[in-house]
Design a protein that fits this description.
By secondary structure, this protein is α/β, with parallel strands linked by helices. The chain is built from 11 helices and 11 strands. It is about 35% helix and about 20% strand. β5 and β6 form a beta hairpin. Bound molecules: manganese (II) ion.
Length: about 250
């Protein structure tokens, strides 16, 4: 584990609150578990402050245990935190496939197979049978617990606190935060990442992996590519301070 403290800035969150935002997990329940332990240790030292966890989405796909990540997030978070769960484009793939099985190929090309395997779906058998997408959907519907579906269908698009807004991918420059399109919040990259204009609040986001967290005047990216690099990052905000908490394997 490593813990890197950063800096004091003019952007703030309200007094009496501590916020932890957690980047893209992608099935790495092992790293999520370690990071939550680190956050709990940190939070134990801050006393009576209101403690909030904000998860930036992409809980599933690519990594080995998407089922375990959804289970942990939906049932086993520590009691002392309020929690907000944002939707990532990978949760959208999963939901699109359940609504319309012709999304199967798109989902599989984007790391859906380990998700199906984590839920116990017989992917090899379906492939050998040359099963239609509808049969894959039926197998997944039978495998995924109802409470996981409820969790995945009730994720938030954005969350705001103090001078910060939290989203999965980013925001479209020039569009007010309350008028952002769902597709941009889930998918945007270059127009957002390149923009140097203020967005109204500091945008904390995931979606585009970098070796280290990225801090700009208008945004903070905390997707450190857990599934590729073994590094999962949380941003801790308290009044005018920013700290990164990280675990690495
Ligand atoms: Mn993403």
């Amino acid at each position: 584990m490593k813990k890197a403290t950063f800096e004091s800035v003019t952007a703030t969150i309200p007094a009496g609150e501590v916020v932890y935002a957690i980047g893209d997990i992608h099935g790495r329940v092992d790293l999520l578990h370690e990071l939550l332990t680190l956050i709990e240790q940190d939070a134990a030292a801050v006393g009576k402050a209101r403690k909030t966890l904000i998860f930036l989405g992409d809980y599933v796909d690519r990594g080995p245990d998407s089922r375990g990540v959804v289970e942990l997030l939906s049932t086993r978070l520590p009691d002392e935190f309020d929690a907000h769960f944002l939707i990532g484009n990978h949760e959208q793939f999963l939901l699109d496939f359940l609504d319309d099985p012709t999304w199967l190929d798109v989902w599989l090309r984007n790391g859906g197979e380990p998700t199906l395997l984590s839920y116990g779906v017989d992917v090899g058998g379906l492939e050998r049978q040359g099963a239609e997408p509808g049969a894959w959907r039926e197998a997944f519907r039978e495998a995924i617990p109802e409470r996981h579906l409820h969790f995945l269908r009730n994720l938030e698009l954005q969350y705001q606190i103090g001078d910060y807004v939290f989203v999965h991918a980013g925001v479209r420059p020039g569009v007010p935060l309350d008028e952002q399109r769902r597709a941009d919040l889930l998918w945007i990259r270059h127009e957002f990442l390149r923009s140097q204009e203020p967005f109204g609040k500091i945008v904390v986001h995931g979606h585009t992996p970098e070796r280290e967290p990225v801090m700009r005047s208008n945004r903070i990216g905390i997707d450190t590519g857990a599934v590729f690099t073994g590094c999962l990052t949380a941003l801790r905000l308290e009044s005018g301070t920013r700290t990164f908490l990280q675990v690495a394997s």
